[in-house]
Design goal:
Blueprint lengths: L1 E5 L3 E3 L4 E8 L6 E8 L5 E8 L4 E4 L7 E6 L4 E6 L8 E9 L17 E2 L3 E6 L1
Parallel strand pairs: 2-11
Antiparallel strand pairs: 1-3, 3-8, 4-5, 4-9, 5-6, 7-8, 9-10, 9-11
Length: about 130
């Protein structure tokens, strides 16, 4: 599994960004794929996940109504559309893939950094 993120940037509060995660060497249909973020000095937290294997979409409360996750089937790329960004959204955003059904459940609660496949991360900074 290979995941490469892009799209992180510095924006002002209220702005928008689209993060991309190019996936290769695995079949998207067999995995739950999503985003996890880590703010400075904090633990990793799940943001959103989508699974074509079981039809699940998950959003953490922090991003509901502002973030949208999607997949481009042709490009095998995962996206995170982020609107109305807040300073508390500042973090490194990681793409993560977990094989099997119910895998989006592993994007809530405690995030085990040793479980699943990860990209290298892309940094998002939101200024007030």
């Amino acid at each position: 599994v290979q995941l490469v993120e892009s799209g992180g940037a510095s924006v002002q509060s209220g702005g928008s960004l689209r993060l991309s995660c190019a996936g290769s060497r695995f079949h998207f249909d067999d995995y739950g794929i999503g985003w996890v973020r880590q703010a400075p000095g904090k633990d990793r937290e799940g943001v959103a996940c989508i699974s074509r294997s079981d039809g699940t979409t998950y959003y953490a409360d922090a991003g509901k109504g502002r973030f949208s996750i999607s997949i481009d089937n042709v490009k095998t790329t995962l996206y995170l559309h982020m609107n109305w960004l807040k300073p508390e959204d500042t973090a490194v955003y990681y793409c993560r893939a977990i094989e099997g059904i119910d895998s989006c459940m592993l994007f809530s609660g405690h995030i085990d950094p040793d479980f699943g496949s990860w990209g290298q991360g892309t940094k998002v900074t939101v200024s007030a």
